Records
---
Amino acid sequence: MSNPNYSYDVEVEQTGVGLQFIFVSEGKNDIVKAIEYSYVQNLMDRQLYNLGFGDYDLETDRVMDEPVSDNGDHYLILNTVLNSIPTFFQHYPQAIMAVQGSDSKPEFIVRCKAECRRRCAEGECKKAHRRINIYRGYVDANLSILQKEYVFYGGRNDIDGQIVIEDYRKGIKYDAILVLKKDVNL
Amino acid sequence: MKSKINTRKDQVKVSKSGLLSLVASKLKGRVLFPEKIEKMKEYLRQAEIKIS
């Protein structure tokens, strides 16, 4: 999906719930990163997998999806995540892949409000939604090229608070992105 | 020139490929983001699909 030469080496493993990728971010520190495509449920007769991404701590043996490691290699990490998507579709060509940001959760915003120094307005959090915005920014910037191979849908809150999944349009602040390989219509 | 020898017994040096294999073996069979699966289920449960 992105430049395959600008990417970390990954260890790929098929698991009981889907597909797992492990790689080492080699920035200021060496940080083990994990990508997991996990089966969620069927949607429109297709299997939907969630893209999860986080840091693995060898000492605590835990994977955390919220830390911002700021390791100085975020483009390389983003490329590595994006490059895992074609591999996912090689394994699951009929599937739908969905992604949401871990910093879009209401709990994140509540916690951030309690700890953050920034003075965000009521009901706002400048640190929220950064992760999904990175994916959204990439899709927006490359949509015409990506649409040759993939179909995109966006999930957003309607004005009445209803979540709507619709055909992806540039510039909309989606809080979820759904992707499937072309020639597979819902 | 002085060389520094690490004598700590709780630290070992492993290659990147060795580290990846080690982590992959530790994570084998585990669901890494169970909360995200539940969150996506909840999201889809509430979603209305309006696609062409």
---
Amino acid sequence: MTTHFISAEVDLHDTAEELHSAIEIELQKHGEPLRWAVTDVDVDRQKAVVEGYVLVEASPAIA
Amino acid sequence: MNPRPLTVVLIVPTGVGALIGGYAGDALPVVRAIAQISDTLITHPNVLNGAQLYWPIPNAVYVEVYALDKFAAGCWGLQPVHQNRIGLILDADIEPDLQLRHLQAVDAARATLGLNITDCVLTDRPLQVELRISQSGASWGTIGNPDSLLRAAEKLIKQARVEAIAVVARFPDDEGSLALENYRRGKGVDPLAGAEAVISHLVVRTFKIPCAHAPALSPLPLDPHLSPRSAAEEIGYTFLPCVLAGLSKAPQLVAPESQQHNQLSITADQVDAVVIPATACGGSAILSLSGRSSVQIIAVGDNKTQMQATPEKLGIKALQVNSYLEAIGVLVAKRAGISPASLGADISSLRCLSD
């Protein structure tokens, strides 16, 4: 198991709940989200800048 | 009819350089004040922990941030306890003398405070904590051997039946670094906070048990210019007493549909207000709670942070105030059933909805 730091941009959504879901989905591409926050918003591009950690389970060893 | 209890959540995110609460438990005066006008005040270790210093607040609920995020999302409830049985994890990387200092801090908490700390486990490998600063300016970090941390926690839970876990990991001594120098002057970001959060999040996420962390560090040379905001961390050998005091009464974490859940459990639908630094509204808990129409988000402007995630940018409806003193006024008005807008000089005209 390892922890990884992830930085990502996520499209802003109409509601905060939708944004929450979109962030989790984006981070899940890299592992299980452990902690994250929107650190800034690019208002012109309508993008949320997200930093977070994900947890990656070790892959089983290949025999 | 009994009035609805006022349930408030106070968040000061860790490791983002909050001017108030970004140092050594220096948001405790804010907690103490808000607790006076709340029936229940839910907050987290970064806010309540002042190393050797802490303050018992009967209606304050000590919830680790991973658990707070789950609570806010409606996944977990908070079940009050009389006292938790606490286990201690010590990082194998801690030197023998420093280990002994921490064990003596535990003994002091048992003998002087009556806390129920029953068992200790040394990790089977050094945890290998490394510290980093992100592009946004927040502190973060990694641990090299997370599995070792989780094996130690599992041993405490299975063999000793502990109900809460205190972790002490050996953190790098970065004496002489600019980040540490700034921190001791009450400026900049706590360089340890991000890695501390990873450690406690891992344990809480895996075992659904209250957990908090204290770093083990070598004592620093005396600094005559030490900021009062950082001073609580330089009056003893460990940061552990506040963690043990907090965990002793930390609520158990229960799924709303579980058998342990009962009428005493606190759930997200009971939250009336959240108080948060205005630039740090981008966390999971705030985004979750902002979707509940009954929750008033109070964004405090003068508690500046390294973040730039304001309610306006995120499209979150929030009441902006300048200071915690003003936030407390808003909560008093809310408790009394008075619209804060009616306390100002200008009252807007009634809005007429068109077809």
